[in-house]
Sequence to fold (466 residues):
Amino acid sequence: VEISAGLAADLALLTAALEDPATDIMETVRQLARAAVQAIPSYIGLSLLIETDRHLVPLSAFEMSAGPDDVLTSLTLPLGLWLPIPTGAKPAATIVLTLYASVLGAFVDLASDISWLSAEDGAAGLDQALPSTISAAAVSIVELALINQAIGLLIGRGYTPDEAERELRLTAVRDGVEASVSAAALLAELDELDEPESDRSSEV
Amino acid sequence: MSDSSDLPPVSAAQQLSDEADLRTSLDRLAGLVAGTLDLDELLSQVATFAAAAIPGADGAGVTLLRVEHAEHVVEALAASAPFVTNIDELQYEVLNEGPCITAAIERRTVRSGSLGGEQRWPRFGPRVGRLGVHSVLSIPLVVPDKLVGAMNVYAHDKDVFDDHAAHLGELFAAPAAVAVHNAQLLAQATTLTKQLQTALATRPVIDQAVGLLRGRSGGSAEEAFARLREISQSENVKLAIVAQRIVDEAVRRARARRAPPQ
Fold:
């Protein structure tokens, strides 16, 4: 499977949050792709759509020499359904896995098997999602990290979390950019403060 | 086709009871994925259901196999009882011979009622016989286009598995093959979901703490993250808890500054 630099950066941030040296989410993605290749000969890629309470994060990885244009069929698995969630706990996100194949009908048997194995009709959805249907409003994990860092910075300046988030959003609307761009600009001010005096004077 | 047996036919009552056990195990096989946590657990469940479905079984093992150039490659194995684990490890890892390997390579049901004197597996048979296990029934797990693994069912007594037991085992093996075939994919998907859920639950507060630390003392995000990690290690407290504490303190201070004077 081909892991782009962007996806690698996203998965590295998530892996760091696990605090488990034995776990590498990128390796889990590779193992999942290997298992998909074994199960479906015409499998060409996968995507994960992560939906938190405020953001939509799409991640995708295609096999070498394949891409979204090669997709002819898909199988969507809403993974949260299979995980037992402790009573009262709210999952951090809903996660939908979609597998892609280049041959029509490639997932028919697997969809039927999964419905039987999970004892749930509709546990696997055929052709519900193609790569082009991913929302333009989506953010990456790296962008999400910038937004949260900027919220942290504003909290340090006396904002409550809600106010910080609102401030960031309003600035983005005012400047006509995404929230992650406003966040990056705010954080870049810190970098400027960090630069040695001589560097700053040389820029003037 | 299974090997022949000279055992007397089972009674009608026994047949009804055996079929009820098979139905129960097949029902349990369906719905297996819900709540399943990993591949080993899923395979272990299939092995447990197999032991319950096949009359006379004292234990069963399920192996995920790949056959390459007449050689078998074990990808995962699970058992319903510790004695099965010992026997299957002996078969796959120590001796590289036995009924399951034969069943997988020849893609047919194989059985023996007297392992101690078994000629087909001259090293495996006597070793297992000395462990007090004398009967085995091995069935390949096959989906339409390929072999995905094998199922071993063992009993301590001699001549336990007859044609009837082999027939029930083969009826169980067909859907079990579907479960085992998809187990790897589903288990990996479930593992990934768990890892992502855990990471997503803590990453936002870690990033907020990183932003707070950067605002206080400058430096890059990597340096602030390293500082958080140092605090976490020196206090022996999880990173996310340290991050949450730093954010909570800052929020408390921000709210205190707004509070009207008493």
